[in-house]
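We modelled the chain as a single entity of 170 amino acids. Its sequence is:
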Amino acid sequence: MKSLPYFCRGEVVQGFGRGSKELGVPTANFPDSVVDNLPADISTGIYYGWACIGNGDIYKMVMSIGWNPYYKNTKKSMETHVIHSFKEDFYGETLSVVVVGYIRPERTYDSLEALIAAINSDIEEAKVKLELPEHLRLKDDNFFTNTASLSSVSLTNNAPSTSQTIMNGY
């Protein structure tokens, strides 16, 4: 996927309401405008990277991009699980993410327990992969200090992330 790392941000919107309640894994959801602007080469599946809420700290994250086959969704979504415990919801806040790598394709499961086990395995894999030096450096990217715009930016692996590097609608 030549579009990785992929930088995007948007307002956290109400999702399907399953993350915390059914799965025990709260997610922050992007609006359709962000989902609809994903590059074509970012296929559906599970990804990992870095996330920041507002101007807060930067945390590891996993993200599901797609239709969530277990639930048979008809609407494509980008659901981000920030690997941190927050005291309250942050609907309406700006979520900034850098999608760094791909874990696996979407798949369906025979049971809710099997889905939860897969999600927990994805979280553990993301934690390990994000410790690699090439991924750790993206945690300190200038993208996280410039949260003024609610758009998406995709930078190639070799392109510097500065305020002069403007792509995808900027």
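As a brief sanity check on the tokenised model: The mean pLDDT is 85. Residues 112-129 form the longest helix (18 residues).
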